[in-house]
Amino acid sequence: MVPFTSFSEIDSRPSAPRNNPVWFSLSEDRPLAFFTGIRTEWTSVRKLKEGEVTAELFGFLTCKANAEVEPVHERAMPVILTRPEQWRTWLTADTPEALNLQRPLPDGLLRIVAEGTHAGPA
């Protein structure tokens, strides 16, 4: 799990300025939530000069965009967990049960809290 208080998607609305980030959060106070992800080690040859190396890799899980994200970024959004029981399931359940959490956050739970590169706190 990766903690966050807000995340951005590049605005794809027709009237949006080019490369304009739109910032989403659970509320204006930007409370803590978590993205889901998968971490693994991978051994391969990435550069011939280095030879075989083992790298730690991480990827965020995504899902279909919900009603708030879809107008800005229609393809996908991160999988977001907001409750302690979801966190426990993600970290401890068998894979099929944990993957049931790979779904959009219910409509109405995200807000646009800022737009633009310098519109919000770091």
Segments where pLDDT lies below 50 for 5+ residues? none
What's the total helix number?
A: 2
Basic shape? globular
Q: In percent, how much strand structure appears in the residues?
A: 35-45%
Q: How many strands, what sense, and barrel or not for the largest sheet?
A: 3 strands, antiparallel
Task: Walk me through what this model shows.
By secondary structure, the chain is mainly β. 11% of the residues lie in helices and 39% in strands. The strands form 4 sheets. The chain has a 3-stranded antiparallel sheet. Strands 2-3-10 form a 3-stranded antiparallel sheet, with no helix packed on it. A hairpin with a 3-residue loop joins β5 and β6 (51-60). The longest helix is centred in the C-terminal third of the chain and has 9 residues, at 84-92. The model has no long low-confidence stretch (mean pLDDT 92).
What labels would you give this structure?
122 residues; 2 helices; 10 strands; 11% helix; globular
Q: Topology of this protein?
A:
Blueprint: E1 2-4, E2 7-10, E3 21-25, E4 33-35, E5 37-47, E6 51-60, E7 62-63, E8 77-78, E9 80-81, H1 84-92, H2 95-99, E10 111-115
Antiparallel strand pairs: 1-4, 2-3, 3-10, 4-9, 5-6, 7-8
